[in-house]
Amino acid sequence: MDPLALPALHASHAGSWLRDAAGTTRTVGKGEAVMAVADTPHLILNAPLVATRLGYPDLSGLDLLELYAFIHPARFVVPTPKGLAHALSLEEPADDAQVPRLLQEAAGVLLATCEDPAWLEREGAWSALQSLTRLRWPWTGPLARRIARPERAERWLFAKLPEWEDAGELPQPRQVQIDEAGTLTRLAQLTGSAAEQRSGQRDYAARAAGAFSPRLKSGQPHLLLAQAGTGIGKTLGYLAPASLWTEQSGGTVWVSTFTKALQRQLRQESRRAWPERRADGSQPVVVRKGRENYLCLLNLEDALQGGFAGRAAILAHLVARWAAYTQDGDMIGGDLPGWLGTLFRKRGIAALTDQRGECVYAGCPHYRKCFIERAARASARADLVIGNHALVMVNAARGRDPAARPTRIVFDEGHHVFDAADSTFAAALTGAEAIELRRWVIGPEKASRGRRRGLAARLADVASYDEAGGRAIAAAREAAEALPSDGWLQRLVEGAPSGPLEDLLGAVRATVYARDESGGTEAGYGLETEAAGLEGPFVELAQAARAALSELRQPLIRIGTRLEALLEEPPDWLDGQGRQRIEGARHSLGWRVDLLAAWEALLERLGGAADPEFVDWLSIERSEAREFDIGIHRRWLDPMKPFARTVLEPAHGVVMTSATLTDRTGREEEDWAVAVARSGAPHIGVAPQMSAHQSPFDYAGQSEVLIVTDVPRGDIPALAGAYGRLIEASGGGVLGLFTAIRRLRAVHGRIADRLARGGLPLYAQHVDPIDTGTLVDIFRDDPKASLLGTDALRDGVDVPGRSLRLVVMEQVPWPRPTILHRARRLAAGSAKGGAQSYDDGIIRARLAQAFGRLIRSKDDRGHFIVLSSAFPSRLLTAFPAGTPIHRVTLDEALQRVAAHGQEPSMIETDSKHDA
Question: What's the pTM?
Answer without folding.
Answer: 0.91
